[in-house]
């Protein structure tokens, strides 16, 4: 069984002229943190999906063209709105694509015939038999899975993956590199402490390879992509800066 891990490193080094003027009323409250699942989050998810697709030159890195055959089964763990599932189902019409997520507001009622969604909490296990899937994919679970649950989740993925199957992760390093003083303070102090209390590792991408190995996967490959944040990075940089800002400002109490 092989594993492919793609990590996105966020680079923030936009030069700001003059003194920073920060409205304290706009600063997010990090006493209690959770990422919302509302309409504005759906818009952010769409823009993030297409930005990452552009950066990674497609929806996947694994050699799926040669690996999949008619009747193969694909699973997206933590599928969110289901955008990736629908695109893959259209790209490979002879395979069956499944997505599972805690939320139920999937992207559209009219979906490809070979694409199915299931609502479920993946930390309690995956509701499929052993050796079910030929390929498992997952992206950006780093804000959703507690540190203590990562190994168990990977063991479950290993269980439902067929011998010789492929698992691929696309996770972000949650901290921006070369950050300015304000963002650095938010990341290193407020956000870090809030997430630490809830056992959320914003930098899980940096050690995901070793957890994958512990779960029993072999032939592990890792790749890294730097994502610009700010106008200096063009359209992708502007999208990522907007996403970062909206994510921080929309954090809400953990219920």
List the helices and strands and how they pair.
Blueprint: E1 2-11, H1 39-55, H2 64-67, E2 73-77, H3 83-91, E3 96-101, E4 115-119, E5 133-139, H4 150-160, E6 161-177, H5 181-197, H6 208-214, E7 218-228, H7 234-249
Parallel strand pairs: 1-6, 1-7, 2-3, 2-5, 3-4, 5-6
How is this structure best described in words?
GO terms for molecular function: methyltransferase activity. This is 9722_t:CDS:1. Residues 74-165 form the Methyltransferase domain. It comes from Funneliformis caledonium. Pfam families: Methyltransf_25. With 255 residues, this protein is α/β, with parallel strands linked by helices. It has a single domain, classed as Rossmann fold, CATH 3.40.50. The protein is 32% helix and 24% strand. It has seven helices and seven strands. The protein has helices at residues 39-55, 64-67, 83-91, 150-160, 181-197, 208-214, 234-249, and strands at 2-11, 73-77, 96-101, 115-119, 133-139, 161-177, 218-228. A seven-stranded parallel sheet has the order 4-3-2-5-6-1-7, sandwiched between helices. Strand 2, helix 3 and strand 3 (96-101) form a beta-alpha-beta unit. The longest helix has 17 residues, at 39-55. The termini are far apart. Residues 12-39 have low confidence and may be disordered.
